[in-house]
């Protein structure tokens, strides 16, 4: 498995696991599980203070760093790998969009909704399927 200089994985499976773990950690931080026991994260600062918006957005910092690492790693790919990655991302985006629209329409008739982590995992699964299909197609 190849690692970037910043420590970001370039392997697709490890990248998907990283995204899911980041999402889980960010969700736990928003609930206050890491910093404030099981209370709300906004209790760390005064409710009237503007700093509470900064505190709530702190879990976004690793996500931004991860996104920059992915962009930097994808800029180092050759033309064929970049084409396969673009096709697999398009495949994943399209199927996830169809899934989200279907889910929201089914929510109108009280069908239970998928959670955020489930949607992120499904999107990563679609990305892997697209990547495997692109590798098979261009071998």
From the structure above, extract its key features.
139 residues; single chain; disordered N terminus
SSE blueprint:
Blueprint: H1 12-31, H2 51-57, H3 60-75, H4 79-107, H5 116-137
Description:
The chain is an all-alpha fold and 139 residues long. It has 2 domains: 8-76, no CATH class; 78-139, no CATH class. It is built from 5 helices and no strands. It has helices at 12-31, 51-57, 60-75, 79-107, 116-137. The two termini are 20 Å apart.
Uncertain ranges = 1-10, 32-39
Helix content: 55-70%
Per DSSP E runs of 2 or more residues, the count of β-strands stands at 0
**Which class of secondary structure composition applies to the elements?**
mainly alpha
Strand content: under 5%
Oligomer state equals single chain
Biggest sheet architecture: none
Determine Rg (CA atoms, Å). 18 Å
Q: How far apart, in Å, are the first and last alpha carbons?
A: 20 Å
> How many distinct domains?
2
Average pLDDT reading:
75
- The H-and-E topology, N to C, reads as HHHHH
Give the structure's gist in a few sentences.
The protein has 139 residues and is mostly helical.
């Amino acid at each position: 498995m190849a690692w970037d200089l910043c420590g970001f994985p370039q392997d697709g499976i490890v990248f998907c696991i990283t995204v899911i773990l980041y999402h889980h950690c960010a969700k736990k931080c928003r609930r206050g599980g890491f910093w404030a026991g099981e209370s709300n994260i906004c209790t760390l600062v005064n409710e009237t203070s503007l700093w509470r918006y900064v505190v709530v957005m702190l879990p976004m910092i690793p996500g931004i760093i991860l996104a920059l690492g992915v962009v930097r790693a994808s800029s180092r790919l050759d033309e064929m790998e970049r084409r396969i990655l673009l096709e697999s991302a398009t495949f994943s985006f399209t199927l996830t969009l169809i899934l989200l629209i279907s889910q929201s329409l089914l929510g109108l008739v009280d069908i239970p909704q998928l959670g955020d982590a489930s949607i992120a995992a499904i999107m990563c699964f679609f990305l892997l399927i697209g990547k495997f299909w692109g590798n098979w197609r261009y071998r």
